[in-house]
Amino acid sequence: MKAGVVGIGGALPETVVTNADLEARLDTNDAWIVKRTGIRERRHLDGGRTLTDLGAEACSMALADAGRDPADVDRLFVCTLTPDRYMPGLAPGIGDQIGATKAGCIDLNGACAGFLYALDQAAGLVESGRAQLVVVCGAEALSRITDHADRGTAILFGDGAGAVVVAPGDLDRGCSTFELRSEGAHGDLLYADGEERLMRMDGKEVYVHAVARMVEATEAALVRAQITLDDVDLFVAHQANARIIESAARRLGVPAEKVVMNVDMIANTSSASIPLALWHAERDGQLQPGDTVALASFGAGFTWGAGVITWKEHAQAGA
Ligand SMILES: CC(C)(COP(=O)(O)OP(=O)(O)OC[C@H]1O[C@@H](n2cnc3c(N)ncnc32)[C@H](O)[C@@H]1OP(=O)(O)O)[C@@H](O)C(=O)NCCC(=O)NCCS
User: Fold this and answer.
1) Chain region(s) in the chain for CATH 3.40.47.10
2) Ligand 1 mean position, distance from CA 220 (Å)
3) Helix %, strand %, coil % for the chain, to 5?
4) Contacts from 26-31 at CB under 8 Å and sequence distance 24+?
5) Angle at the Cα of 144 from the Cα atoms of 75 and 134, rounded to 5 degrees
6) Which residue from 5, 8, 187, 200 has the fewest beta carbons nearer than 10 Å?
7) Is 105 among the residues known to form the active site?
8) Distance of alpha carbon 258 from alpha carbon 249, whole angstroms
9) Is residue 268 flagged as an active site residue?
10) What is d(CA 111, CA 247) in angstroms, rounded to the nearest whole number?
11) pLDDT tens across 159-198, in order?
12) Packing angle between helix 51-66 and helix 90-98, nearest 10 degrees?
């Protein structure tokens, strides 16, 4: 019995902040932002909706996509750096909103790599038989911890939520074992501390580590899954910025048509970025059931990781 991804959902706040909007209040410009990051716009959560609402929308959509009843969910993991309240976490409220009446619901904070860590946990629970149905959600309102006067970071981040449903099946691969790592010695290169609660970053250092670590982890994940790059249909890397993704893909040797890119529309949404990239890729027809997908992520900590999954393998088998 293996654990597979059987449903996907995403949700974005309505408010769009374009590069032109940032130009009006910061010493920056659209051409610089697009050239250095590939980002054209981002979404900000405002107007009364909570991050709980956004996460619940993504989770409900993922369960509907999987054709599963929320009342059957055993566990809900919500990855977030930016919960609505310091406590409780987002997960119990999201579980309540979606009707996951018998689920254990908890937040996990693995920064931008959180989603892959949580997906690995979900797969482990399902494969061990401890859970039959797990929802993994990344939900972030990074606008809450962005210094909107700092042009070095204010251009980079956005808000959003994405979710997947993980369930058991008689699958060839499902979610293969992930390669997960962390290196706390680099904690000062990207952080928001308890007092200030604003992201601070050494952009150049983060850039170099992000590319190198995602490449190493992806190579290790491919070896572990006993496949080569030729077997990979799609490379879905953390949508931090286009240059990081393109550089990692180039080093790995992944052709551009196999690289998912939605950072232009939503910027870096931290732990929501991988599920939102999968959601967009499927909606755009870039991702089909049965596809072999290499996932890679990197974030504050540093934490990072990579894994190989077969997309909706069940759906392809017609089960
Ligand atoms: C942030 C980042 C885009 C900056 O790009 P960069 O090429 O390293 O740019 P630099 O910081 O060297 O700055 C180059 C120049 O542009 C200026 N600049 C910085 N931000 C600017 C902005 N938003 N608009 C215009 N100019 C800007 C700098 O002040 C500097 O000017 P100077 O040469 O006169 O000193 C890049 O470092 C990056 O993408 N890092 C990774 C960030 C990330 O993804 N973090 C999250 C990971 S999970």
Assistant:
1) 2-169, 179-317
2) 30
3) 45, 25, 30
4) 26/149, 26/151, 26/154, 26/155, 27/151, 28/151, 28/155
5) 10
6) 187
7) no
8) 9
9) yes
10) 21
11) 999 999 999 999 999 998 899 999 999 999 999 999 999 9
12) 50
Pocket mutation for ligand 1, best pick of 26, 204, 273 (most atoms within 8 Å of C-beta):
204
Q: Is 299 in the pocket of ligand 1 (CB under 6 A)?
A: yes
| Residue 124: closest CA among 110, 106, 136, 139 | 136
What percentage of residues in the chain have a pLDDT greater than 70? 99
Ligand 1 centre distance from Cα of residue 53 (Å): 33
Q: Which residues pair with 310 in a beta bridge?
A: 292
- Which amino acid residue places its CA nearest to atom 44 of ligand 1? 240
Question: Of ligand 1's atoms, which has the minimum distance to the CA of residue 157?
Answer: 46
Catalytic choice (59, 79, 105, 112): 112
The CA distance from 163 to 70, in Å, is 13
Q: How far apart are CA 78 and CA 108, in angstroms?
A: 6
Which of 272, 238, 294 has the alpha carbon at shortest distance from 58? 272
Given the residues 238, 262, 280, 314, select the one marked as catalytic.
238
The hierarchical CATH code for the domain 179-317 is 3.40.47.10
- Which of helix, strand or coil describes residue 299? strand
Asked whether 191 lines ligand 1 (CB < 6 A), one says no
CATH homologous superfamily for the domain 2-169: Thiolase/Chalcone synthase (3.40.47.10)
The predicted structure's pLDDT at residue 316: 52
Residue 238 annotated among the catalytic residues of the structure: yes
Contact 297, 305 (CB under 8 A): yes
